[in-house]
Amino acid sequence: MKSQPIIQLQGLTKTYDLGEIQVHALRGVNLDIEAGSYVAIMGASGSGKSTLLNILGCLDRPTSGRYWLGGDDVSTLEDDALSIIRGQRLGFIFQSYNLIDQLTVVENIHVPLFYQGRDLEQCWDECVKFAELVGLGDRLDHRPKQLSGGQQQRVAIARSLVNNPLMILADEPTGNLDSQTGREVLEVLDRLNAAGKTIVLVTHGEEVATRAHRVVRMKDGFVDSDVLNRKTISTAATARPVAAAAR
Amino acid sequence: MKPLIPIALVRIVQLGVKSLLLHKMRSALTMLGIIFGVCSVIAMLAIGEGASHEAQEAIKKLGSSNVIIRSVKRTAENSSSGQGKRSFVAEYGLTYRDAARLQATIPGIRRVLPLRIMRDDVRFSSISHPCQVIGTHPLYPEINGVDLLAGRFLTETDERYQNNICAITLSLAESLFTGQNPLEQEVKIGANYFRVVGIVRERGTEQKRPQSGATEGQTIDANVYIPLSAARNRFGEVIFRRSAGSFEAEKVELHQLTLQFENPESVETAVPLIQRLLERFHERKDYELVVPLELLRQAERTKRIFNVVLGSIAAISLLVGGIGIMNIMLATVTERTREIGIRRALGAKKKDITTQFLVETIVLSVGGGLIGVAVGVITPLLVEQVAGMKTIITWWSVVVAFGISALVGVVFGLYPARRAAHLDPIEALRHT
């Protein structure tokens, strides 16, 4: 049985037009990510890693090439349509947590559902369920400022799960945390992946990357290497590298 | 069944309030502009309305179907009469014949009320008080607006028999008869005794007395009303006055004529006729015509201009308030760039962001508007208490002021909100 990948990138390029000079951030990326996989994207700054993440997160559109997300071509969608895609199919975890200060824990978790037109009262139980899942069931009414970094990041994880996304995009999720809490957060991600969530993680840290099943290294706008992680692959039967970089 | 107000909107408003409460001081200061704007619109218009209402009421009391003719002494011809013969007696003003002619010839006249006004001291036992002695007809209270407090006013019988009776004003009664009942007491005016038969109170006295001429600067509230016939016989036509060592005498038959017409329309046609008639029998213009109807119209015009001026001032303050709001909202957008980025990443469309910020601005301006209305309603009441000015809060000024404040929110909120919505989500997320 060959499962349909949830993400397919084909000849993806991104060029920033800065007037005098043109910056080629991506020069043709081909990448497939299957459901349930745990992929780490690595690369030095300027490698095109961030640009790739933005496009994967539907925050930006490629200059050329195709991007299928869950079977739909999202590479040419309009702004509003991209907003809907982000709200329904993607979950974001950021380095600096990016919670909204004036909202409580449960309200922060609710934000993606709010933009799907669902009132907090309707989906209170769901939001609480995810807060409990990340171990913050007793902090529902706290504001982000009243929480530690690790706790904030766990709220962000709960928020990324609440809309039941196809994929969770994590951008340096442990970058602002000490190694102990960083490890705890990564363990949460491990558990989520074990439960079947697709996770794409962008990181500098080799140690972080070792937890992934597959490591994609970017260089100069290309996929430099795409390797399976032998150590972890055994625990996740669903993860498979499908495509290699085309040079 | 769908709720009347969409629940989503309620949530957005709640969110807006929550965000604004995050910076209570800043929100309060921002609202201050709108509060002052709305408050000044309502308060200014209330004070203006009150002032013009007072003036209009005073004019209305003169009667919009009345024409008032007053005798005026020409200062240039102080001591010589019109015939050129030298005399110590200044002879001028309206005559009994004028009154009769007017009554007979001007169409639409209902009644003519003649008035003789003299200054004299009124005496009771050992107390003496300067006053105006007004010789008039029994019609006086009806035409001039006088309240009878006790006893009776002059009657036709008094007029016919030249009775030595009088009605006095309340303030005069208070200063003459301390602790006594003035009714049926005799007061001495000049060389004559008059029996007090009634106590009255004048309404809006200031406007009724001549502003120029012989009776200027008199005590207004101390009036003694006696029958015109009695005034003519007991005091004669010549009034003597001693002032600063010199001796003055004037011969005036009537000081004032109030012509009451059937209706305000006939006033307009009658005014030129009255002027022609008087010009014919008076070589000099020793009279003045007061037409309350014209004054009323003038007052209305003045009020309109007044309202425009006050309205513009208030509108400017609302505008300034609006600019203040826009300024703060632009700062807020910059400050909350990251929040905008987060919301965009989590599925918010541009429209959602626009709505969020617009609602916040509107909450600010409408909140300011509501407080402004409250303060604006209280301020005129305070002004009334402290300064004793009459104020009238009109419902439309409240509606207009509040409406403008809401509009200010929309107009000045739109730009910051659109700017927020058009931020690039990637840039916004990267913003620190």
Structural features, described:
Chain A has a domain at 37-60 and 86-233: P-loop containing nucleotide triphosphate hydrolases (Rossmann fold). Helix content of chain A is 31%, strand content 26%. Chain A has helices at 49-56, 79-89, 105-114, 124-133, 149-161, 179-194, 206-209, 230-233, and strands spanning 7-18, 21-33, 38-43, 64-69, 72-73, 90-93, 167-171, 199-202, 214-219, 222-228. In chain A, strands 6-7-8-3-9-10 form a 6-stranded mixed sheet, with helices on both faces. In chain A, strands 2-1-4-5 form a 4-stranded antiparallel sheet, with helices on one face. In chain A, helix 3 packs across helix 4 (124-133). Chain B contains 14 helices and 13 strands. With 432 residues, chain B is α+β, with helices and mostly antiparallel strands. Chain B has 2 domains: 10-57 and 298-430, no CATH class; 66-262, no CATH class. In chain B, helix 1 crosses helix 12, helix 2 crosses helix 12 and helix 12 packs antiparallel against helix 13. The interface between A and B is medium-sized, with 29 and 24 residues.
Overall geometry of chain A: globular
Instruction: Give the CA-CA distance, first to last residue of chain A.
Output: 29 Å
Q: Quickly count the helices of chain B.
A: 14
Sheet with the most strands: spatial strand order of chain B: 3-4-9-6-8-7
Structure classification of chain B: alpha+beta
Number of helices of chain A: 8
- CATH structural fold name of the domain at 37-60 and 86-233 in chain A: Rossmann fold
Instruction: Give the overall pLDDT of chain B as a whole number.
Output: 83
State the low-pLDDT regions of chain B, or none: 78-86, 206-219
Helix fraction of chain B? 40-55%
Low-confidence stretches of chain A: 234-247
- Number of beta strands of chain A: 10
